[in-house]
Amino acid sequence: MTARDDKPKLSRAHCLDLLRHMIRVRMFEDKCAELYTTEKIRGFLHLYDGEEAIAAGVIPVLQLRDRIVATYREHGHALVRGLPMANVMAEMYGKFEGVSAGRGGSMHLFDAETNFYGGNAIVGGGLPMATGLALADKMRAEKVVTVCFFGEGAAAEGEFHESLNLAALWSLPVLFVCENNCYAMGTALDRSESETDIHAKAACYQIETEAVDGMDVVAVEAAARRAVHSIRETDKPYFLECRTYRFRAHSMFDAQLYRDKAEVEEWRSKGPIVRFQGWLAKSGIAHPEDIEKIESDVKEEIEEAVAFAEAGSWEPVEKLTRWVYAERA
Amino acid sequence: MAKRIIKAETVQITYREAIRKAICEAMHQDERVFLMGEDVGRYGGCYAVTKGLLKEFGPERIRDTPLSESGFTGAGIGAAIGGMRPIVELMTVNFSLLAMDQILNNAATIRHMSGNQFGVPLVIRMATGAGRQLAAQHSHSLEGWYAHIPGIKVLAPATLEDARGMLWTALDDPDPVLIFENVMLYNMEGELPANAGPVNIEKAAIRREGRDISLITYGGSLWKTLEAAEALAREGIKAEVIDLRTLRPLDDTTIIASVAKTRRAVIVDEGWRSGSLASEIVTRIVEQAFWRLDGPIARVCSEEVPIPYPQHLEQAAIPQAEKVVAAAKNLLSK
After folding, report:
1. What is the CATH code of the structural domain delimited by B10-193?
2. Which in A38, A200, A235, B269 has the greatest CB count within 10 A?
3. Could you give the residue range(s) of every CATH 3.40.50.920 domain in chain B?
């Protein structure tokens, strides 16, 4: 009998790991926002600020052979998955040293080594791909889980329903993780959906579903462990709705006319880092020097990442049209 | 005793059977290959291409799908990235529009967007074209749209040999390949060498040689164009007929060499005239061979109307041999 792996073990080291993941993502993105204002980073920049507990809770539960499909708000997922921060930052700059050689930018982080399949910026468009990756694994009897992250806005897309149906119908090992941050860009959930209970939609497809407090990293990890355990045992899909909130604007162009400042402040007070860090301090698991150490380490890592990106190279224009098709010998 | 001419053994086969044979062979040769689409299994395929395959290969590899074009095309993309070699069948090009997001935004972009880390070795087959009185939602020729997209390859097999041979080459390609099968060709019957196999997908083919005018076409229009060339020959005009075969990337070399020789060209394309593949070919000829031309280039395309139901209107809407003959004679002032 194998030891059950579906419950988090809250050792001090593990707690600090969870906290480190979240702080690392938050500080990295704060730096990105700053670099955006100085025009080092261009294009769209969608920050994960407030939602860090989801990537931090789900991704470390996975094994390296498992696969991840994410959205355009994927910096957090990439960092937690282990894409090197320096190369992620270089990608944000559009430098050749970036994880996607600079061709993708903020919205299109890819990494073959860690089975990280983007960085997909058409809402709902990643779900069929995740379903297909899982189909490939199933047909070859590979015991691999594909995790697909998407926002609640995707529930309005046909591809959401088509993919859930296919995954259930064909019994595919996909973990669908809905990051329900209440707003599809500027449209509140109750202004766009007749059924606002997203995980209830998944239940219609005979998929095991669960809704969890997405601001609670331990709750997310526990739910992710249950989900991944269930998928590995049954080979069937699982749907996890993580209820969360985006503290910052949708992208850097968003004036946030659609929500009150008070609402944002209220959610901020129950933010995933504030809450977990507060609990760790109160229960004596983490000491102030632990937090300081995490922050100073991350600060250093970010400085190195920025320096790496700054020193990176621009791909020669002569190479513009490569990688449209495979280069064959 | 008469001298016997030793010929390669041939079989009598239809275009439909040639495609089925190609699918069968691919499934036998490569266990990563599987086929999915609407009614490909139990029903046997909308145009009966996949009839009998379910029994031979089972429901895992001949996979019936729900009516979720975007979903299963996207699943094909995912499976291809994940190491399989899927063939996705879309019933008609009109239905493929429901999967256009996946084809353009994912299949065509991922290699580039990921900095060459992931490729999508996927084959998508679909029926195209008018002629069966299926009216305005089942009869269009939109392959020219797809040929607009960098990152995919677009094939239009017009002959039995290409119907038989293009699939394997497409499956062997590391990038997404779309194959457009004209609905009027499925019943076409002829002889094919029993050992027919993969064909190249890089070159256009000269289906009839001539020196007076180049007739450039592909797919279902090839046979009408050959008929036109025959009619022109009776009037002493030697037309060269080019079958493009691959609509993206276009084989400029063959097109330009032919036009440089004949100095005149008519493009025959079942797509609508405006913004068509025919427009693109005209432009390339003008760009690359303007000084070799003896006169304007002509196009025979579909009329700018949704394909109508009644037969006489449907036939009037699409290219016909007579229109090609008239266009050619007009260019030659005959």
Report:
1. 3.40.50.970
2. B269
3. 205-331
- Residue B82: list chain A partners with CB under 8 A: 67, 132-137
Q: In angstroms, what separates the C-alpha of B204 from chain A's closest C-alpha?
A: 20
For residue B43, which phi and psi values (nearest 5 degrees)?
-75, -30
CATH class of the domain at B205-331: alpha beta
- Residues of B designated as active site: 69, 138
Tell me if chain A has a CB within 8 Å of the CB of B65.
Answer: yes
- B239 CA: distance to closest CA in chain A (Å): 35
For residues A52 and A38, is the Cβ–Cβ distance under 8 A? no
Euclidean distance between CA atoms B241 and B221, whole angstroms: 11
Residue of A110, A132, A163 lying closest to B79 (CB–CB):
A132
Could you tell me if B57 lies within 8 Å of chain A, comparing CB atoms? no
Q: Inspect the interface and report whether the beta carbons of A100 and B65 lie closer than 8 Å.
A: no
Tell me if residue A258 falls in helix, strand or coil: coil
Going by C-alpha positions, the residue among B87, B74, B72 that lies closest to residue B25 is B87
For residue B1, name the pLDDT band (cuts at 50, 70, 90). Answer: very low
Distances (CA, A) of B58 to B52, B86, B88: 10, 15, 16
Q: What is the DSSP letter of B104?
A: I
The CATH number of the structural domain formed by A12-185+192-310 is 3.40.50.970
Residue among A202, A203, A201, A185 nearest A193 (CA):
A201
Residue spans of the domains in chain A: they are 12-185+192-310
Cβ neighbours of B27 in A, within 8 Å: none
- Asked if B41 is an interface residue toward chain A (Cβ–Cβ < 8 A), one would say no
| AA letter at A271 | G
Tens digit of pLDDT for each residue in A138-149? 999 999 999 999
* The two three-digit tokens of residue A125, written as one number: 């468009």
Position A209 pLDDT exceeds 60: yes
Give the A:B interface size as CB pairs under 8 Å. 147
pLDDT digits (tens, 9 = 90+) for A6-32: 778 889 999 999 999 999 999 999 999
Q: Which residues of A touch B83 (CB under 8 A)?
A: 136, 140
